[in-house]
Design a protein that fits this description.
Elements: E1 7-14, E2 18-20, H1 33-44, E3 46-52, H2 53-61, H3 63-67, E4 75-79, E5 90-93, H4 97-105, E6 111-116, H5 118-126, E7 132-138, E8 146-147, E9 158-165, E10 171-177
Parallel strand pairs: 1-6, 1-7, 3-4, 3-6, 4-5
Antiparallel strand pairs: 2-8, 7-10, 9-10
Length: about 180
């Protein structure tokens, strides 16, 4: 039997649970060489990225970053019922999110990452499609901004799979969904 690909959602989070500052800023995120090495390992095991519409549009505004990113070997899926087209190198998915994701998870391949969008990540969690949450807890309180889990409507339980503390004070927590 072919095993399903793993879908994970990974985000940097402040101690008070925000993924963006009050003006959409990310300058509080701590990222060092040690974390970069760990992330590189994760990307080697990943060959697909899921984007929400807002994250896709933000990425398109800074096209030079998209062209020089370390994810060029991956398939890039954009989830949107409002867009009519996406740029070359991206695949637009409309309609039933659960059906689309299950179809991709059943394809041969490596892991799948939710690249952007707390709304998309939360929708996928609510649908029971996220297999792992990877949270990079940054040792900073930012007071306000965009909370990660504001779109969660029901309880979801997880098992701690791994934790890693970096010299910077950042702690990575990897949780597996309890099924």
């Amino acid at each position: 039997m072919l095993s399903m690909r793993k879908l994970f959602a990974g985000f940097a989070v402040s101690l008070d649970g925000y993924i963006e500052g009050p003006n959409g800023e990310y300058d509080w995120i701590i990222f060092d060489k040690e974390q970069e090495k760990e992330l590189a390992k994760q990307w080697k095991e990943t060959d697909a990225m899921f984007y929400g519409r807002k994250t896709y549009e933000m990425a398109m505004k800074n096209k030079s970053e998209v062209q020089s990113n370390p994810f060029t070997h991956m398939k890039h899926y954009v989830f949107s019922n409002t867009l009519s087209e996406v740029k070359d190198g991206f695949i637009l998915l409309k309609g039933d999110t659960k059906e689309n994701v299950e179809q991709i998870k059943n394809m041969k391949g490596k892991n799948i990452a939710v690249f952007g969008g707390a709304e998309l990540a939360c929708a996928l969690i609510e649908l029971g499609l996220v297999d792992e949450l990877v949270l990079a807890i940054c040792p900073v309180l930012i007071g306000s901004g965009k909370p990660f889990f504001s779109h969660i409507k029901q309880r979801h339980y997880y098992n701690l799979k791994n934790s890693k503390t970096f010299k910077s004070g950042v702690v990575w927590l990897t949780y597996e969904t309890k099924r």
